[in-house]
Please model this.
Amino acid sequence: MAGTRNTAVAVVLAALALTATACNNNDDKKAAPAAPTTAAAASATPSAAAPTTGAKPEKVSPAVYLEQVTQKTSAAKSAKVDEVIQVGQVTMKGKGAVSWADGLEADLTMDLSGSPMAKLLEPLTGGPNVHYLYTKEAMYMALGGELLEQGAPRWVRYSKADMAKASGGTADQLQSADPVQGVRTLIASGKVTEVGQETVNGKATTHYSGVLNADDVAAATTQGMTQAQADKIKQNLVAAGITSDRIDVWVDTDKLVVKRSEQAETKAGALNVTVDYSDYGTPVIAATPADAISLADLEKAASGS
Model:
């Protein structure tokens, strides 16, 4: 049994090494729009998402109103998400629930069938769908297929250091991947306009939009980061060839974000990220897996196989 387990571990480690490289390249291409994005049990307070019905009581500037949206959406603490990420000809889709009550916690399933990553990960996951759990301390990727029959653990654990290495030192961005990230960026940029009233997912919403240049994106994205992290973001933007980023948000009459999108041109092709939010206040329960192996332990096990 030890021999088959060591073989399985070696396969996992080799595939993860390739995956980390692919993730690093992909993150460089996507640059500032983080992903999606990222547990211990977290249950949002339903009252936090209680609607305050009615249209805006008074006309205020888009920046002032979006600041109110930031506060209201943040207070809701969690939501269900449905996202589509396109980079050139590559498409990835994700569904699940995310909590931002105390750092990022999430239970997400990514459909990678529209990405070369699907074939890369298939020996690990057993198919194109990949189950991820995000806690405040780590990310877990579920294994599947023949690996489990060979004695591999059920989950692979990525520590913060592992994620930072794979994403070029920007893993801390995962901690702020909530529905108002785009709103905060628009406010920080000072370049936001009200487009008008639109119906999105059956809800009456107000559409806000802004086009940011590379300096705007860097300044808004790197707030709260160390200088080294901020420099890395700027380097990624330059390397990716991103000169501008269009951010759009749709807000309902309860001052909750219904939809967010980002569009940019990169060296890898057009980047389009769309995230729909629903069921604010939904419980996000994703306990830390007991049957998990870290990348460090994988390296040790592989060295003896």
Remarks:
- The domain at 2-303 is CATH 2.50.20.20 (outer membrane lipoprotein receptor (LolB), chain A).
- Confidence is low (pLDDT under 50) at residues 1-54, 169-177.
